[in-house]
């Protein structure tokens, strides 16, 4: 009897250990880091959407499923966008083969904006890995345009890693990954920094008005007292 109980307990322990080993840890919201010292461009991450909205607007190729992630995962992805992509624009530009991004890195007159187009949980159902040991996934997101600078962030269980897409088409992005869990699709755009109107050109005129006003008041005062 004791042997049977021991065998059952052992089996339960093994099953529990097995379950723990396959469960990927959820991402946490990290601290935003400073950009590399050589970077001069301004960077910003656009406001993220709700997890359910991302899940509703993202579809995946056959053999996979898409589910909503937690709010914490979306927030963690947004910080990862800053730390992994925007803090070294030159590096990510070179990685994506995008010369516009690479040259913008050291240009203070440029601004690089990252838009998180999707953050979803992707899981295989009938899909299998190819001969190189990768899953080939196509995510469809309506806001992707052909020619967009798209980076894929994947949480591998311990950290976010950047994946370079194999192709970007109107409404979809295809990429290869050795494992699946939270996936974020990020669009990077370069624009010129909007210069604020110079107040220096209007200040002399304002000063002149004040001076003229004082001079006029002085003249009027002289005439009044005369």
Straight-line distance between termini: 124 Å
Q: What is the helical fraction, as a range of percent? A: 25-40%
- 3D shape: globular
Strand and helix order = HEHEEHHHEEEEEEEH
Query: What would you report as the Rg, rounded to the nearest angstrom?
Result: 28 Å
Specify the number of helices. 6
Low-confidence parts lasting 5 or more residues at pLDDT below 50?
5-23, 196-226
Mean pLDDT: 84
Q: Which structural class best describes the helix and strand composition?
A: alpha+beta
Largest sheet: 6 strands, mixed
Strand content: 25-35%
Count of separate structural domains = 2
| Number of strand segments | 10
Please give the structural blueprint.
Blueprint: H1 2-22, E1 42-45, H2 51-57, E2 59-60, E3 64-68, H3 71-85, H4 89-96, H5 99-104, E4 110-124, E5 135-140, E6 149-155, E7 160-163, E8 167-169, E9 172-177, E10 182-192, H6 203-225
Parallel strand pairs: 1-4
Antiparallel strand pairs: 2-5, 3-4, 4-10, 5-9, 6-7, 6-10, 8-9
Q: Any descriptors?
A:
four-stranded antiparallel β-sheet, globular, 226 residues, 2 domains, alpha+beta, six-stranded mixed β-sheet
């Amino acid at each position: 009897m004791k042997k049977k109980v021991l065998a059952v307990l052992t089996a339960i322990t093994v099953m529990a250990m097995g379950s723990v080993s396959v469960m990927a840890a959820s991402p946490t919201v990290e601290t935003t880091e400073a950009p590399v010292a050589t970077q001069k461009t301004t960077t910003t991450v656009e406001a993220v959407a709700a997890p359910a909205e991302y899940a509703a607007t993202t579809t995946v190729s056959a053999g996979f499923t898409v589910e909503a992630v937690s709010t914490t995962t979306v927030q963690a992805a947004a910080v990862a966008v800053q730390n992994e992509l925007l803090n070294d624009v030159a590096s990510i530009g070179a990685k994506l083969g995008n010369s516009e991004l690479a040259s913008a890195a050291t240009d203070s007159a440029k601004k690089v904006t990252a838009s998180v187009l999707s953050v979803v949980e992707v899981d295989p159902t009938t899909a299998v890995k190819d001969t190189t040991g990768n899953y080939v996934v196509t995510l469809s997101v309506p806001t992707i345009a052909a020619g967009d600078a798209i980076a894929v962030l994947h949480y591998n269980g311990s950290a976010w890693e950047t994946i370079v897409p194999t192709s970007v088409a109107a409404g979809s992005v295809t990429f290869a990954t050795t494992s699946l869990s939270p996936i974020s699709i990020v669009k990077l755009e370069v624009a010129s920094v909007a210069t604020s109107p110079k107040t220096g050109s209007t200040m002399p005129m304002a000063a002149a008005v004040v001076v003229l006003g004082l001079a006029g008041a002085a003249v009027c005062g002289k005439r009044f007292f005369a």
